[in-house]
Amino acid sequence: MRCDRYRADLAELDAQRRKATCDVGNIALSAGVDILWFQWAEKRRSALNKDLARALVEEEHARAKAKRAFGRNQALSKILGQSVHRR
């Protein structure tokens, strides 16, 4: 499922961010690269959250559509079953 992949990507990004904040002695921190990485990470996190939200909405729409189709199928089966018994 796409939702699982987005969640995994978000978890990985969070883990990388936690690791980066713990590496105080990192050379990148003193070079200012950390600021650029954190900005990129925040943009990436935002994009992943938007994609996850979109995928969740699509999944819910598909679930609702399948539920309606199943209900229609059950109703039709019941109607057909009743008409066969009447004959």
Quick structural summary:
The protein is mainly α. Helix content is 92%, strand content 0%.
Order of helices and strands: HHH
Which range best describes the helical content: under 10%, 10-25%, 25-40%, 40-55%, 55-70% or over 70%? over 70%
What is the average per-residue confidence, as pLDDT, rounded to a whole number?
A: 87
Quaternary structure of the protein: single chain
Write the layout of secondary structure elements.
Elements: H1 2-22, H2 27-31, H3 33-86
Helix pairs in contact: 1-3
Account of the 3D structure:
This protein is an all-alpha fold and 87 residues long. Helices cover 92% and strands 0% of the residues. It contains three helices and no strands. The longest helix has 54 residues, at 33-86. The radius of gyration is 25 Å and the shape is rod-shaped. The protein starts with a helix and ends with a helix.
List keywords for this structure.
single chain; 87 residues; mainly alpha; 3 helices; 0% strand; rod-shaped
